[in-house]
Structures are given as structure tokens and as C-alpha cells.
């Protein structure tokens, strides 16, 4: 408990808030990239306690949220096949496709299983040689090393009945896409500490130089977030644009070299479509040619599946920071955690889910107008 208490100290929080208020002389817009940071901000009311001039924009850092609808539909098509045992982390089972989700496939007789590691799916492939075992490999750089190791292990074991549906996305190209958007309002970024613990901080230095934008690597506890905000505001107020590491207890500049090596061995960079955002060049990974036999998309010939988003869902604008979740007309009405229109409502890290869970139903402007 002492470790946690160190990062939830109310006196230190008060000092950080006071320092941020002292530093702030004009409006600034900061984007926290990670959905885990978004939930920390909303759960603890950090955005409401900061000076009104500081706006926190919720970025596209929820891997479930940015997985394209067409990839969900490909997963559903594979999972419904009678010879397939489809394995996934639990947060993907309720993510809606165009007509159903993995829970409904399971209730209709599909062999859909929740696993806690991709290596669990490899073990299942060993235990069930008569079945085609497929693992749903999504996420940012954080989850990718374990997925890469699962493919390496499957090759070593000669498991021809194991494959992976890959939808990995990368943070730095997403930051570039946000900065190059004509609608961009972001003036500084709080980078995701867990991604940087794997990849290091070196990938962000070119972004700082190219766009003259401060990037502060930040953790997930309330005090981590506040320290990240404080450093970002200090840079903005002083006219600086630098890369800072406010999460040194977990992040080193070089990152995790063995993890990077296995990623380089198994994956190659590819263009990726982001749900609600669209295609971003060089923003994802796919299996290299050596491991292409383990590509479930090719094995089950589902790459042709294309799907349109619900016209009622504004999750794309939420993911780009153009809209707060409670500004969407469907929020809390047609779209709830029980009846989600998009992944930002059903994901445990989604911004819409955070706003619903913590009672943020009324937009700030509407509150001010009613006073």
C-alpha cells in the first residue's frame, strides 16, 4: 500500500494543482494519448479541478476503440466457423461488429474462449490438434511483444493449427496524423508510459522536432497525470518544445531491447485503418513473410470483408478530440454500455464508457449556460 499511497498523496496533489494554476496564463489544449489515462482523469475529476484555461483532449489510445469495424467482422466470421476455437482477451467479446459481437457467436454455438495470454492460445493449439485455434491479436506496442512470442513459439512447436488475426497499431504515426489534421487543436501530448516502457522514448524525439510540440511521457496514477500536465504547461508557457520523461520508474530512453528485437523479428510495418479515424500510413504491424502462414486473415480468406459504421455513432470525432463523449447526440440514449454503438462505449478504456461510468452526462457548456 505504501507504493500506491506515494502516488495518491492529497497534499502533493494540492501542491501540483497550485503550481499548474500559477503557471497557466492562457488557454492550452493537451491530449492524453492513452485510454487508461483518460479513465484516471475522469474517475478522479482531474479535468474539473484544473484551471478552466486547460482543456484535456481524449486521444485515440484505446486499442479496442481503434480496432476497425471490418476487423471485428472478420473476427466474427472466423469465430463462427465450426472448426475454429477463437481466443481473445475478455474486453473484445462485447465490442459490436456490424450485426453482433463475439458473445452472440458464442451463444449460437461458436467455440469462443477468453484467455489471459496469447501463449494460452498456443497451449490450446497443442491440446486440440483437430481444431483451428485463432488468437485475436490487437493493441498498441504494449501487447505486441507477447503476441510476437506466441507466433515464435507456435513455429518452434510446428503448430499448423495455430494462427493470429493481427490488428496492431502504433502511437507515433497517430500523433503525426493528429498534428497534420487541419482540425487539430492539440498543443502538447501526454504520452502513454506503458507503450514507452516497451519502445523507449527515442521514437518521439523526431515528432517534437518536426511539429514543435511538447511530449511528456506520463504514467497512470492521478499524481502521474498531474505531473505530466505540469511539465507540459511549463513548456508551453515558456515557449519550449521538448521530450520529457515524467515516468522514469518504468520508462528508459532505450526501452525494452529484447522486446523490440522479437517485434522486429516477427512483424513489419504496414498501413492501418483506425476505427473512426481512417487509414494512417505506416501505423501498424503485420506478420512478416516468414510467419505469414500464421496469419488468420489469409488462412480463412476474410480480408475482403468491409463494413460501414453506424451513422449515429460519433466515436471517430471523440477519438480525434473533436468532440467530448457527452456532446454526441446518441450518448446515454441510443448508445449505452448495454447497447453500445461503438467501441468507445463498450471498451473498459473507452472515453465514452468513462463519461457514462462517472456520470458525465451533461456537456460543460450546457452546465455553464444553465447557471
Features of this protein?
42% helix; five-stranded parallel beta sheet; 371 residues; Rossmann fold; alpha/beta
What is the averaged pLDDT score? 91
Number of structurally distinct domains:
1
Largest β-sheet summary: 6 strands, mixed
SSE order in H/E notation? HHEHHEHHEHEHEHEHEHHEHEHEEHHHHH
Outline of the structure:
It contains 19 helices and eleven strands. The chain has 371 residues and is an alpha/beta fold.
Structure characterization notes:
By secondary structure, the chain is an alpha/beta fold. The protein has a single domain (34-371), classed as HypD, alpha/beta domain 2 (Rossmann fold, 3-Layer(aba) Sandwich). It contains 19 helices and 11 strands. The strands form 2 sheets. Strands 4-3-5-6-11-10 form a 6-stranded mixed sheet, with helices on both faces. A 5-stranded parallel sheet has the order 2-1-7-8-9. Helix 2 packs parallel to helix 13, helix 8 runs parallel beside helix 9 (144-157) and helix 9 (144-157) crosses helix 14 (257-266).
Secondary structure layout plus pairing:
Elements: H1 2-6, H2 10-23, E1 28-34, H3 35-43, H4 46-49, E2 54-61, H5 63-66, H6 69-79, E3 84-88, H7 102-107, E4 111-114, H8 118-127, E5 132-139, H9 144-157, E6 162-169, H10 171-180, E7 188-192, H11 193-199, H12 205-211, E8 215-218, H13 222-238, E9 243-245, H14 257-266, E10 267-274, E11 278-287, H15 296-299, H16 315-319, H17 343-346, H18 351-357, H19 364-370
Helix pairs in contact: 2-13, 8-9, 9-14
Amino acid at each position: 500500500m505504501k507504493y500506491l499511497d506515494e502516488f495518491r498523496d492529497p497534499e502533493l496533489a494540492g501542491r501540483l494543482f497550485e503550481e499548474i494554476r500559477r503557471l497557466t496564463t492562457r488557454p492550452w489544449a493537451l491530449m492524453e494519448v492513452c485510454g487508461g489515462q483518460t479513465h484516471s482523469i475522469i474517475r478522479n475529476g482531474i479535468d474539473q479541478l484544473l484551471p478552466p484555461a486547460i482543456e484535456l483532449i481524449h486521444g485515440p489510445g484505446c486499442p479496442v476503440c481503434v480496432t476497425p469495424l471490418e476487423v471485428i467482422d472478420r473476427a466474427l466470421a472466423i469465430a463462427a466457423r465450426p472448426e475454429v476455437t477463437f481466443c481473445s482477451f475478455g474486453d473484445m467479446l462485447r465490442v459490436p461488429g456490424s450485426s453482433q459481437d463475439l458473445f452472440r457467436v458464442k451463444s449460437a454455438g461458436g467455440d469462443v474462449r477468453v484467455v489471459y495470454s496469447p501463449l494460452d492460445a498456443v497451449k490450446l493449439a497443442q491440446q486440440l490438434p483437430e481444431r483451428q485455434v485463432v488468437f485475436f491479436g490487437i493493441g498498441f506496442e504494449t501487447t505486441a511483444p507477447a503476441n510476437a512470442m506466441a507466433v515464435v513459439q507456435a513455429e518452434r512447436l510446428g503448430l499448423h493449427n495455430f494462427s493470429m488475426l493481427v490488428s496492431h497499431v502504433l502511437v507515433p504515426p497517430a500523433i503525426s496524423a493528429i498534428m497534420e489534421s487541419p482540425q487539430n487543436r492539440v498543443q502538447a501530448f501526454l504520452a502513454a508510459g506503458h507503450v514507452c516502457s516497451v519502445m523507449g522514448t527515442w521514437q518521439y524525439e523526431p515528432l517534437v522536432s518536426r511539429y514543435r510540440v511538447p511530449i511528456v511521457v506520463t504514467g497512470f496514477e492521478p499524481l502521474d497525470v498531474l505531473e505530466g500536465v505540469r511539465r507540459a504547461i511549463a513548456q508551453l508557457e515558456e515557449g519550449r518544445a521538448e521530450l520529457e520523461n515524467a515516468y522514469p520508474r518504468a520508462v528508459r530512453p532505450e526501452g525494452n531491447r529484447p522486446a523490440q528485437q522479437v517485434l522486429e523479428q516477427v512483424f513489419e510495418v504496414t498501413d492501418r485503418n483506425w476505427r473512426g479515424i481512417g487509414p494512417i500510413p505506416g501505423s501498424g504491424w503485420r506478420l512478416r513473410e516468414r510467419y505469414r502462414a500464421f496469419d488468420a486473415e489469409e488462412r480463412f480468406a476474410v480480408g475482403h470483408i468491409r463494413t460501414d459504421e453506424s451513422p449515429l455513432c460519433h466515436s471517430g470525432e471523440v477519438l480525434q478530440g473533436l468532440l467530448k463523449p457527452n456532446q454526441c447526440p446518441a450518448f446515454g440514449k441510443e448508445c449505452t454500455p448495454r447497447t453500445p454503438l461503438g467501441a468507445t462505449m463498450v471498451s473498459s478504456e473507452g472515453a465514452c464508457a468513462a463519461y457514462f461510468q462517472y456520470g458525465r452526462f451533461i456537456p460543460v457548456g450546457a452546465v455553464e449556460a444553465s447557471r
